[in-house]
Amino acid sequence: MVRPSPVLALHALLGACLLVSGCGIGEPYVNPSLPAATVTRLAPEAISASVFFIGDAGEPSQTRREPTFLALEREASREATQNLIVFLGDNIYPRGLPPRGDPSRGRSEWALMEQVRILQRSGARGIFLSGNHDWDWGGTEGWEAIARQERLLGDSSAGLAALAPSGGCPGPEVIDVGASVRLVLLNTEWWLHSHAKPQGREADCHEPATERGVLRALGEALESAGERPVMVAGHHPLETHGTHGGFFPWEDHIFPLRHLVSWLWLPLPLIGSAYPVARTLGVSDQDLSGSRYRHMVRALDSVLARKPPTLYAAGHEHTLQVLQGSRPFLLLVSGNGIEAHDDPLTTAPSMLFGDIAPGFMRVDFTRDGRIRLAVIQPADEQGMPRESFSIWLRGPAESTRGNDDPVR
C-alpha cells in the first residue's frame, strides 16, 4: 500500500480547513436575487416613528468622534421626538463598567457617555441592552457591572436613556412606540451567563426569572400586540455568518498570532487551525455552536414561530447582516457600531445584505402602514450618512413588481 507523504497529508488537512472556512466578504454583498440595493426613500412627513439599531459600540476612538456616531446623530436628529435608538449591547469593552477607584473606570465611563452624547445632541430617546462584555465578559462580577451601568445611565442621561431589561432581569420588557410599533426587549446574556444573576420567582423582575416565565411573557407580548408590528431585540443573534457562526477566514488558520500582534504574520498551519476548529465545536457558549446558545435559540424560536414578529434585531457579531431564511421573520445583525472592529463575514443563501464596514440600521414606520428597512453607513470621516441597502418590509399596496415588493 502506498502511504501519502506527510507533506501531502498536511496539504489535504489544510485544504479541508480552508474549505470549511469558505470565502469572506470584502465588499458589501447584496443578494443577486434582489433587483436593486435600495428602494424609494420616505418623505419625513410620512413617517410616524423610526427605530435605529446599533450594537457593540463600546470601544469608540479616543482621538476623534466615530464617523458612525456622527452619521447616527445626523439621522436621528431629524424629527427627533419620534426617533428611538436601540443600543444592542456590549456598550463598554472589555468587561463592562468597573467599580469606582478601578484604573479603567474613567475610560469605561467615557465610552458609555460617547454613546449617550448621540442622544443628547440629536434629541432622540435611547434604550441600552446588555451584552456579554457588559456582564464582566461573562465573569463573576457580571451582575454588579450591569447594576453600575444602569445607575450611570440613569444619573447621566437626563431621562434620555435607560438600560433594559432592568436589574439584569431576562425580560421581556415591552415598549410601545406610539401606535406604530411594539418593541420587545430581551436580555439574552441571562440565558448564557454562568454566574450570579436574577433567578427564580423570588427575583426582583417583572416576570419570574425562569425560562418558562420568559417564554410565556414573550408569547403574551407578541399576542397582545394585535395588528401592531412587533420588533424583538436582544444582544445575541439567532443566526449569523461571522465568527460566532463558525466562519473563520483562511488567514486565521495560517497566521493565528496576528490577532495578538498585528504584524506577526508567522505561518503556523495546523496549529493555527486548532482555535477556529474548536470554536465550531461548541467550546464557547458565546458562539452558536455552544450548548447553552443552541438551547436559547431553540427556545426563542419555539415562541417566535407561533406569532412571528416583523423582525428580530441583534448585535454581538461585529458585522452588518440582513437575513431572510426559513424563519417567518427577518433577522438583523447590527453589531458594527465602531471602526475598531475588523471581523470576517461570509455569504449564505439567507443573506440579503452583508458588510464588514461600520454602520447601523434604521426601520421607518409610516402613517399609512408601510415599513422600510435601511442599512446606513458613514460615507466619510465627517459621518455623512449613506444608505447602502434598503427594502420594504411592508411596501406600497400598489407595488406589483421589483424591489418595491415587501420581503414578507
Please specify the SSE layout and strand pairing.
Elements: H1 6-21, E1 29-30, E2 47-54, H2 67-76, E3 83-87, H3 105-122, E4 125-128, H4 142-156, E5 161-163, E6 173-177, E7 181-185, H5 189-192, H6 211-223, E8 230-233, H7 250-254, H8 274-280, H9 291-304, E9 311-314, E10 320-323, E11 330-334, E12 351-355, E13 360-366, E14 371-378, E15 385-394
Parallel strand pairs: 2-3, 3-4, 4-5, 7-8, 8-9, 9-11
Antiparallel strand pairs: 1-12, 2-13, 6-7, 10-11, 10-12, 13-14, 14-15
Helix content percent band: 25-40%
Form type: globular
CATH homologous superfamily classification: Metallo-dependent phosphatases
Largest sheet: 8 strands, mixed
- Cα-based radius of gyration, to the nearest Å: 21 Å
Q: What's the order of the H and E elements?
A: HEEHEHEHEEEHHEHHHEEEEEEE
Low-confidence stretches: 6-21, 398-404
Mean pLDDT: 89
Number of E strands: 15
Strand order of the largest sheet: 1-12-10-11-9-8-7-6
Count of runs of 4 or more consecutive helical residues:
9
Number of structural units classed as domains: 1
How large a portion of the residues is in β-strands, by DSSP E?
15-25%
Identify the CATH architecture: 4-Layer Sandwich
Task: Quote the CATH topology.
Answer: Purple Acid Phosphatase, chain A, domain 2
Alpha-carbon distance between the two ends: 58 Å
Which class best fits the helix and strand makeup?
A: alpha/beta
CATH C-level label: Alpha Beta
